[in-house]
UniProtKB/TrEMBL annotation:
Name by which UniProt lists this protein: YhdT family protein
Spans traversing the lipid bilayer: 12-35, 55-79
Superkingdom to which the source organism belongs: Bacteria
Keyword set includes Transmembrane: yes
Membrane listed as a keyword: yes
Pfam families, alphabetized: DUF997
InterPro entries reported for this sequence: DUF997
Keywords from the UniProt entry: Membrane, Transmembrane, Transmembrane helix
Originating species: Gracilibacillus caseinilyticus
């Protein structure tokens, strides 16, 4: 158990897990803010974008596109491909 705390692979895996959790929290806050912030009005007061209520457009459509871009950027620039297998790590 102590060995995992000293191993660079597990430090990297923990860092990537924290980044993933931050992305999930950001996605939830984005969705919640627009869904309940703009969607709390009476339906006759809604504004529409491309035929969708604004709260749905921003929370679901824009949110998904934003998360796809953010996850792509994070995986491309902050994540590294490495093996957690001891055999492959010892050969490096």
């Amino acid at each position: 158990m102590m060995k995992h705390h000293l191993d660079k692979r597990f430090k990297m895996a923990n860092r990537e897990a924290i980044i993933g959790i931050c992305l999930v929290l950001f996605n939830f806050i984005w969705w919640f803010t627009f869904a309940y912030g703009l969607g709390s009005k009476e339906p006759d007061q809604y504004t529409f974008i491309l035929g969708f209520p604004a709260w749905f457009f921003y929370s679901c459509i824009v949110g998904v596109i934003l998360m796809i871009v953010l996850v792509s950027i994070v995986v491309r620039f902050f994540f590294k491909d490495f093996s957690l297998d001891d055999k492959e790590y010892d050969q490096l």
